[in-house]
Amino acid sequence: MKYNSEKWYIRAQKNFRAMFHILVHEINEIFKDRGVVIITLIAPLVYPLLYCGMYKNETLIDVPVGIVDMSHSSISDEYTRKLDATRDLFVFNRYTDLHQAKNDFYSGKIHGIIFIGSDFSKNINTGKQAVVSVYSDMSSFMYYRAMALATNYVALEMGEKIQAQRLSSLGYTDKQTSMSISPVEYESTILFNQGMGFASFLMPAILILIIHQTLFFGIGMAAGTAREENRFNEFVSPTLHRGKIYRVVFGKSLAFFFMYLLLSVYIIGIVPEIFGLPQTANPVTIIEFIVPFLLATIFFSMTLSVFNPSREAQLILTLFFSLILLFLSGISWPQSNIPWFWKIFSYLFPATFGIQGYIKINTMGASVNEIQFELIALWIQTVVYFVLATIVYYWQIRKGSKKVKNNIYE
User: Fold this and answer.
1) CB–CB of 224/36 below 8 Å?
2) DSSP one-letter string for 258-288
3) What are phi and psi of 115, to 5 degrees?
4) Do residue 44 and residue 88 come from a single domain?
5) How many CA atoms lie within 13 Å of 181's alpha carbon, on the beta-carbon side?
């Protein structure tokens, strides 16, 4: 029994030394390649600052709009002033007709037109419903959002005021007037993104995608470089694995894992703090989540890197999948409305579960128990892609060994 324990200890020590040797070798290879350093170190440091800086203002303020007031009444002037007083809109100009406003609209000087008809004041004074037409620039939903919020808010506020005046003229008391205007009191509570900011909505997904894509790009580029520089067109030297394929997979993966574990602290810990993005997650929960996400992404990237013929091919793959992964993540379009084929297809990528899980943890304050689906899915991906990476690496090393033997005999 003692002999077996000593034998096991010696074997484990030997395996550890071999994996450490491969880990050090991989780190040296990473830092020798300027392109891989840019993708795996500089890009994760710069991209989060770049993207968060773009959306720092969170929401659009003072969107320029044009007013076509055909009523020329005091109440239409009041409506225009209240619109201009909102945070969302800025009255750029008042026009005499719709055609004149269209010229500035199509030239980009204004992003919306508000048309007040000639019967606006008359309809209000006679107790009829007044109509205001709103024309919005739909090249961005943010313009529409700003116009919809401002015009609806002003219309509701003025409507309540006019109704209160009418009821008061009919002899209603203040209490009766209040009950008639607002028979049901309601309270609106915005969860998870109180400021309704665009950055608070989008950036958590972008940060996880940056981790996923730079890892995918860096591992694939490193494999392409190794293959291009090796005269037998291999990306793993047959002498490196020292007879145990799992040493290669673990050694190479640990190099990227430790590096990106530190980068993840910066990307999802420090950057959101700098830009004031939502951070409601428990640090322990984040660690429990980020570990399987990094491992699944690394093994996924290593599996596909075997089929990567060159550095350039990895760039094309990364660019091709970046937008697709963002769309499939359920951020730009709800996952419940994504066709079943694309939903299943999205389950192949660690980014899908990474984005959904991180948003639940960091934005919604979910605990580990509340992200069981994403967490289990990432661990399943970790195991599956580790097995696949081991198989394809073994196939690659066997292929390389045959080339070495054939070269010797020739």
Assistant:
1) no
2) HHHHHHHHIIIIIHHHHHT------HHHHHH
3) -105, 120
4) no
5) 20
Global pTM reads: 0.77
Rounded Cα gap, residues 138 and 201, in angstroms: 20
pLDDT tens string 165-189: 666 666 666 555 555 555 556 566 6
Rounded-to-integer distance, Cα 86 and Cα 76, Å? 16
Tokens at residue 77, please? 């002037």
Order of strands, sheet of 112-116, starting from the edge strand that comes earlier in the sequence: 89-95, 63-69, 112-116, 132-136
CA dist 191 and 364 (Å) reads: 8
User: At 64, phi and psi to the nearest 5?
Assistant: -70, 130
Nearest to 122 by CA among 170, 75, 68: 75
Chosen domain end from 152, 181, 210: 181
Taking alpha carbons only, the member of 141, 332, 298 closest to residue 219 is 298
Residue 328 pLDDT greater than 60, yes or no: yes
Q: Which two tokens stand for residue 31?
A: 């830092």
Helices (H) and strands (E) in the chain, counts: 16, 4
Shared domain check, 230 and 214: yes
List of residues 6+ apart from 69 with CB closer than 8 A: 76, 77, 80, 94, 116
Same domain, 133 and 116: yes
The span from the CA of 2 to the CA of 15, in Å, is 20
How many CB atoms are located within 10 Å of the residue 175 CB? Answer: 8
Domain that residue 71 falls in: 63-181
Handedness of CA 193, 199, 202, 204 (dihedral sign): negative
Contact (CB, 8 A) for 110 and 93: yes
Rounded CA gap, 300 and 313, in Å? 17
Task: Name the token pair of 86.
Answer: 């909102």
What's the rounded Cα separation, in Å, for the pair 60 and 123?
Answer: 33
Q: How many CB atoms lie within 10 A of CB 151?
A: 22
Residue 348 has pLDDT above 80, yes or no: yes
Task: Choose among 331, 326, 371: nearest CA to 349.
Answer: 326
The Cα-based distances of 386 to 19, 84, 168, 240 in angstroms read: 15, 59, 75, 19
Q: Convert the pLDDT of each residue in 114-166 to its tens digit.
A: 998 888 888 878 778 888 888 888 877 788 888 888 888 888 887 777 776 66
Residues 361 and 293 in one domain: yes
**In the predicted model, what is the mean pLDDT of residues 277-285?**
80
